[in-house]
Write a structure and sequence with these properties.
Helix content is about 10%, strand content about 50%. The chain is mainly β. Strands 13, 18, 19, 22, 23, 26, 27, 28 and 29 form a 9-stranded antiparallel beta sheet that branches. A 6-stranded antiparallel beta sheet has the order 3-2-1-4-12-7, with no helix packed on it. A 6-stranded antiparallel beta sheet has the order 15-16-20-21-24-25, with no helix packed on it. β15 and β16 form a beta hairpin.
Amino acid sequence: MEFAVLKHVPTTLLVLSVALSATLASAQQPEVVRDQITLRGKVEAVNPTAKTVTIRGDRGNVVTLDMPMTGAPELQVGDEVSVAYYDRVSVRLKPAGEAAVDRTEPPVATATPGVLPGATLASQRVTTVTITGWDPSLRVVTFTGPGGTAYTRRLLDSTDASVMAGLKVGDRVDVTRTEAVRLSVESRTQVSVNAVSGFRNRFTVSALWGWDNQFSGDMITAATGQTTGGVPININDSTYDDVYGRMRLIKIGGNYRTTPRTEVSLGFVWGDSGTADTATIGTAGAAGNVPLTVNFEDVTYWGIEAGQRVFFARTRFTPYIGYLVGLNRYGDVRGTFANVPVSATPGLAAQDGKFYEKSWAMSLGPTAGFLVGLGPFELVFETQFRYMGGLSDVDWLVEEGLRDINDGSSRWSIPFNLGARIRF
């Protein structure tokens, strides 16, 4: 019976029926996702404020992506991740004076089974951005979004030719991108967080060497007086740089991470002037015609410094700022007068040539620098805006009216240090 009915159905209707069935069947199949990129690599940076993650792929390519906003894994620098994202975007030239936009439809997030916590985010995001790079031959556009985050994407094949022709670096445009990201952590190779032990690699030992460049402060301050025999003395200003030049600086210490982005430090400091120079510090005699030339001995000090650092990022290149406070022990600062007649020689020559007594001096100041990670080793560059307190007076100088020569012994300097450290 059924066969008889079909037999009398018109051929055209059968064709339409078959076509409709095929259409319905295809509609039930999963949609083929075009322009979706699957990337496996290592997390190089995480920006929780901008909600972005920077990943270096297995082939060395680097991409910055918006992280899932719901159900996202706790990402750490060094994590091996697998991510899927859409590589293509559309752009709309922005009329002058039109208000910037940044809107996103609510994302849909789901867990990814079988791996560490993961998530899927699917939404359309429209953002006003500034074009920072444009390669029309490859249809690749680079732009900076809100918060300064940089992205590199390809334009859709359907992009109007007139839009591409008018696109140039510096333009403000509205970019529409499909923020569909599936992100899962496959392995965790660096800092690991758990409730029992916290994160690892907290302790580092460092060694740095460099130069302390002094730009303020007087080794000797101008003063006038006379010897105990009544011979006039005129002392001129002489800076530390005039007498000693740049001082060497060595630092050895330990550092302990209190959080993933902060650490405290404690270290030993050694400062040394190297070979001191011969300096003319003034004149003597009624006519002021006897130069007071002094051969200064090396000046050395040691000290203890403590401080804190705050890191801007947890990446292979890690800039930081901080501060250091120290207490430093100086030895006697001595000099020997050269080719000065005994009658015109200041009395301090008879007091072991001391210009300063051994003393303690406090140091402090802000620091800045960066780390370059090489596995468990890190290269370090650090500088500081450093204040060093004054040295102790020599009592004998009072006898000749020269005590003022000690008044300007505090100083400011900018040390530059380069070294390395190892994590434990």
